[in-house]
Design a protein that fits this description.
mainly alpha
Length: about 220
């Protein structure tokens, strides 16, 4: 799984620089849970994994530090930063605001629910096979569907900026609490039921509770 996570950047094409590829690969490994909070990353080890020199690795680590993912210690390595309780709560609040607004702006809540059913089916399959990475990707796609429903590219753009931290939070939650997989699926089912009932207020409340439970699972 580790190698697969680090090679998620391969689709980007040859136009991407080595530093860009290193940045994408290392960030994906952190978001995917391979590099856990508190882990010390070595430039030489990363260079070997990604089959490149240490120079682009160093550039990538500097960018990741600027983005808040790691703390670089010269001559020692880079420490993967933990998402603290306050940051996790802030993330949940931001997601709730964007997702709830997207759903309220949707033209047809029933059609929105129908469009997300295949995504939820993929997530169920990932849970059955134990594919955490696929489960997380489906989770992100499911929630992004609420934002997309508004038809507002600015909202979607803002939401996409939260993607990596969202992936990291979900991954740590399901790893820390195994039963959270089934809970998430049941809660997602419930959200679709509320959309089909065209009950936007109850959907808003249930969504907020769902995101809060995910935040609490990550901290357990």
């Amino acid at each position: 799984m580790a190698t697969e996570v680090l090679r998620m950047d391969e689709f980007a094409g040859k136009a991407e620089s080595a530093a860009d590829r290193a940045h994408r690969g290392i960030r994906a490994a952190i978001a995917g849970g391979e590099f856990e909070a508190g882990a010390m990353l070595s430039e030489s080890d990363l260079a070997t994994r990604l089959a490149m020199s240490r120079t682009p690795i160093r550039t990538a680590l500097s960018r990741l530090q600027d983005e808040g993912w790691i703390t670089v210690y010269p001559k020692r390595g880079a420490l993967v930063r933990e998402i603290g309780a306050r940051e996790a709560e802030d993330l949940a609040d931001a997601r709730h605001a964007l997702e709830a607004l997207g759903a309220r702006r949707a033209v047809d809540l029933r059609r929105l629910a129908d469009s997300l059913e295949p995504v939820l089916a993929n997530q169920r399959e990932a849970a059955l096979t134990g594919d955490v990475a696929a489960f997380v990707e489906s989770d992100i796609a499911f929630h992004r569907g609420f934002v997309d429903a508004a038809g507002n590219p600015l909202l979607t753009g803002f939401y996409d900026r939260l993607r990596d931290r969202q992936a990291l939070l979900i991954t740590r939650g399901v790893v820390a609490v195994a039963e959270r997989l089934d809970e998430i699926l049941k809660e997602h089912d419930g959200l679709l039921v509320l959309l089909r009932n065209e009950d936007a207020d109850s959907f808003d409340t249930a969504l907020q509770a769902h995101l809060q439970r995910s935040t609490e699972a990550m901290r357990s």
